[in-house]
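re the bet — no i am not wrong, look at it urself. input seq straight from the record:
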Amino acid sequence: MEKDKEKLKNVPDGFAQIYSVELYIKKQPILLKNQLLENIKKYCGNVEIMSTQDKSSTFAFMDYVLEYKNASIPVSITISVSDEDVKSEKLSRSLEQSWNYDNDKESIKNCKIKIGVTDLMAVGLEYTKRMELFQKALYSIVELIPCEAINFHITEQVISREDYLENNPLKDEYDPMLGILNVRLFNIEGKKNEYIMDTLGLCAVGLCDLQCHFKDLNPDEVSNILYSYGYYIFDNPEALDDIEAIEGISENDKWECQHEGALVAPERVVLDINPGKEFSSESRS
């Protein structure tokens, strides 16, 4: 056990020093910085324009000023426009794991422009505040920019503009995890009904992702378990140290858990879920 813990010390934590997404649009946008500023203020409070250039603007959140060694610096967000080809391995990976994206995937690949939305100096924020601020700022931007879709490449999922805008952060039914938590599915080559499923996004905010390597179980049911515990961990981070087993598909199932290295990239430490001898892969030791 101690040897395993020592081995995991050298595994990257998967934390996102900067958090970013990409918006894909068909033609060069007209970004009116003052209009953007007013809409960001609507959702994020006291905001100022920090800097502007031909293809980028940075907005400072004056209610979120962090103290560093030699300076007090506000958290900020940068919006940058690029005409680089949107087709990339990053986009392909996301499209493969975007189970709720029903729009024409070719329409994204035909886009000519991508807009990056990136937070800066935000690592000092408590993770729920960081994600709340990012989501509200992103929502205010997507409201004004007619993009085809948003690529949450950190969690490898594409969300349509329509679906994203339905999740208004000012409404009671708002889901703060939309885009920042994904459950991925991977088939095991040469193995029938054997899969690896994991969450992606929890390590990026300083928590711990989950994974399950299993056979002969319904992936939809495993997905529900991963999402449920993913939300639980986001809301109850202190529980991570105490989770030794979780409830499986039936009430009588107790699936043991332990921290291990991720089976699928990105490299990180995850909470591995063992579904029991009947449903475990043959490779599990």
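see?? The helical segments are 2-8, 33-44, 89-96, 105-109, 127-144, 161-166, 219-235. told u. also The chain has a mean pLDDT of 92. so pay up
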